[in-house]
Amino acid sequence: MKNRLISGIIFIILGLFIAVGPQTVFPVCGVHTAAQSAEQTSMPMNSQETDQSEQCAADGDAMSASMNMMMKCHGTGQAALGLGALIAVSGVLLILLRSKQTRLGLSIALFLNGILALLIPTALIGVCDGAQMSCRMLALPALTILSSLAIIAAAANAVYLYQSDKKERQKNEAAAVNH
Amino acid sequence: MKQRPLTTNRISIYNIRRKPFRAACLIIVVAILAFALFGGAILTGSLKNGMNSMQQRLGADLMVVPAGHESDMKGILLGGEPAYFYFSGAVARQVAQVGGVAQATPQFYLSSLSADCCDEAVQLIGFDPGTDFVIQPWIARAYGGAAGDGQLLAGSGIIIRDDGTLKFFNQTYRVAAQLERTSTGLDNSVFMSMDIIKALAAAAHNAGMNFLSDEAPEDAVSAVLVKIDKGYDADAVAAGIRSGVPGVEVIVSQSMISGISGNLGSLVGYINTISAVLWILAVVVLAAVFPFTMNERKKEFAIYRAMGATRKRLIGIVLNEALLASAAGGVLGTAIAAFVVFPFSAYIGSRLNLPYLQPGTGGILGTLALSLLLSFAVGPITSLYAAVKISRAETYMTMREGE
């Protein structure tokens, strides 16, 4: 019971942080429109996009024809929302399910989810390039730490459950032989 | 069942396992101490390192800028906030004539566009290779040579394209080198010769951006950096420039550094005070807790004595338990501090709004060793008195106590 509660609560907390953090406490940059950018640039300019923004535009996806640009980090935030929710739900299942083997399977799935959560901001989608961008300064390190913790916790839980299950089976086998 | 010898270390481990709450409390106290020690030391080290780096990087004694643009200039140097402002090139020539001015070199500033999505505006700094005494010595030291014709030098925070170029206002230039991090706003700047930046200003004009509303681009400059003659006072020369050249503001580098240094000094003072207070608090708490725990374990130690354990062995058991708890707390606290200060260093630097440059590997390892040593030592030091006292207790009397 103690293992079920502790491990479940840990994964619920980690999952919620991974899901909600990029939208709240360590925010990604969001979606910028052409109008917003023009406001930020306090100089008269024509519609030509001629500087480093081209590189960025190539990285992002055009959301619509009206020059709304989705940043890489926005995609990371959305992916983290889904993955974090999945980790949190798995944490709830860890509390509810009694079977050690089922919980072992869940822990292995959580381990793989953790790896995916780590790869999303670092390799699969990434964050914005600018060193001073909020997503690079806050969301990237926070997601890296949280997903690393999820990986470590899932691996430790899996090893613990495997050994505990093995001991239990050996005890049962010994009891059956004695009987 | 497998039998193991009952060594001092094993007895200590069994004792810790048997009382997990007591052990957890000790570990948490030491972990808080280790967190403050290591985190505080890295923070203060980074601030001092950043300050040294900024002092080295400013290079000029005075900075002459158009009146009303003093804060813009400080923003470029300290915060990497792109800005552009201009006065006539004639001002540079006038400044060079003022008494006490040994060298004067003009700089020209442009800002790239704030990007639509992921990127930021970048400060473009043009210097005159013929008179420059600020940028080129730094480039020579950091890069080991001068940039070739038509080449740029990028600050450490600039994202360079995969093909090693940067594109501004439809003009593509090869980047000769990326400079080392300085923790100043110059990390977010791109450096180029005056010819290139004037060509960029013209390209920006053609693209519909009017940086220069009044000044003719070929004669405009943004700032004049001044090195004063030996024996002259920077404030006196600044006053001379202000009175002799109308429409300018003079920033005295030393005053700017002193202001930042004052803020930094008080912050470092706070951090050091908090670390020292926490260390003393941890020592006091542990020194108070150990005699209490020893008191309730008197009979346990009396049994060890009855079983043949020497007084030295008892002291060893107590000190070992304290050392194990301290070590666990020290490692835990230091690891948490490392998880905060290293990945979030850019955020901490930007929030503090002070030059913040993390120490090198050697400095970090030295700080780590010292923090761990102090954390590990706190347990055995505070438990020493209780250990000696319990070892001197009379076994028979202790066993009969309370009967």
Automatic annotation (TrEMBL), chain A:
Superkingdom, natural source: Bacteria
This protein's UniProt keywords: Membrane, Transmembrane, Transmembrane helix
Keyword Transmembrane assigned: yes
Pfam family membership, one: DUF4418
InterPro entries per the UniProt record, alphabetical: DUF4418 (IPR025531)
Transmembrane segments: 79-97, 104-126, 138-162
Protein name, as recorded: DUF4418 domain-containing protein
TrEMBL record, chain B:
Signal peptide (from-to): none
Any Pfam family matching the protein: FtsX
Entry keyword Iron: no
Superkingdom of this protein's organism: Bacteria
Chain segments annotated as coiled-coil in the UniProt record: none
Cellular location(s): Cell membrane
Every ABC3 transporter permease C-terminal domain range: 273-392
Ranges that cross the membrane: 21-43, 267-293, 314-344, 364-388
Isomerase is among the record's keywords: no
Membrane-topology annotation of the record: Multi-pass membrane protein
GO cellular component: plasma membrane
Keywords (A to Z) from UniProt: Cell membrane, Membrane, Transmembrane, Transmembrane helix, Transport
Subunit structure: The complex is composed of two ATP-binding proteins (HrtA), two transmembrane proteins (HrtB) and a solute-binding protein.
Function: Part of the ABC transporter complex hrt involved in hemin import. Responsible for the translocation of the substrate across the membrane.
Family: Belongs to the ABC-4 integral membrane protein family. HrtB subfamily.
Protein name: Putative hemin transport system permease protein HrtB
Native organism: Sporobacter termitidis DSM 10068
